[in-house]
Write a structure and sequence with these properties.
- The protein is α/β, with parallel strands linked by helices.
- The chain has two domains: about 130 residues, Rossmann fold (3-Layer(aba) Sandwich); about 80 residues, Arc Repressor Mutant, subunit A.
- Helices cover about 50% and strands about 15% of the residues.
- It is built from ten helices and six strands.
- β3, α3 and β4 form a beta-alpha-beta unit.
- α7 crosses α9.
- The longest helix is centred in the C-terminal third of the chain and has 14 residues.
- The chain is globular.
């Protein structure tokens, strides 16, 4: 496994087994876990005290097990925009990811299903991408959004390969990563990306291309 930048991390997860599992995975990758807590109040307190590089939090936590973790994540992004945030969910909820992405966008952000934690290398790669300021969205949510918008409109004009590239872009992958997945050159990926942005009427100069793509897939004005 390649060397990774060491990160200072705070974890919030009310399920003890998953919480300890996250601690083990993250520490074995060379990162420092400053705290591993089980509720949103403790998360906010430790973040204010330690100012970590990254927060990994469940969406649903005590006392109501609804959206405490999400509300804590958006509060952290508002108060400490330099801190990257990766939220974990047991299932796909578009409203949650929309709220997270629409919060202060200065630092990296990610939304993954908890099942993804079991794919350790992919999970650690996601942590690195979020910590580096990127956006990471679970592939299952991307597939759901693509299906929702695939019937007609500009998306129907994309080739099969362009749709593959679009999906990988929406997950937050770089051109280099997309090229590796599809076993093509980066030049080919850049050409596909250009075609996609032209056909979907997205700003090709945007430095937030994941947000632009997701805004389109969510049916909003991508600008």
């Amino acid at each position: 496994m390649p060397d990774r930048r060491s990160l200072r991390v705070v974890i919030a997860e009310d399920a003890a087994l998953l919480r300890e599992g996250l601690v083990g995975i993250i520490e074995r990758a060379g990162h420092e876990v400053l705290a591993a807590v089980e509720d949103a109040d403790a998360l906010l307190a430790f973040v204010a005290h330690t100012r970590p590089d990254l927060v990994v939090t469940d969406i649903r936590m005590p006392p109501t097990h609804t959206d405490e973790g999400l509300r804590a994540a958006t509060a952290i992004r508002a108060s400490h925009p330099e801190i990257a945030v990766l939220v974990l969910s047991a299932y796909v909820a578009e409203a949650y990811v929309a709220e997270l992405l629409d919060s202060t966008p200065d630092a990296g952000v990610g939304y993954l299903l908890k099942d993804r934690v079991g794919h350790v290398r992919e999970f650690l790669d996601s942590i690195d991408r979020v910590a580096d300021g990127g956006t990471v969205i679970d592939p299952q949510l991307v597939r759901q959004l693509l299906r929702r918008r695939s019937a007609d409109g500009p998306l129907a004009a994309l080739t099969e390969r362009e749709r593959e590239v679009l999906g990988l872009m929406a997950e937050g992958r770089t051109n280099g990563s997309i090229a590796e997945v599809l076993v093509v050159s980066e030049a080919a990926v850049r050409k596909h990306v250009g075609n996609i942005f032209a056909k979907l009427h997205l700003d090709p100069a945007s430095d937030r291309r994941v947000s632009a793509v997701l805004a389109y897939l969510r049916g909003q004005d991508a600008g």
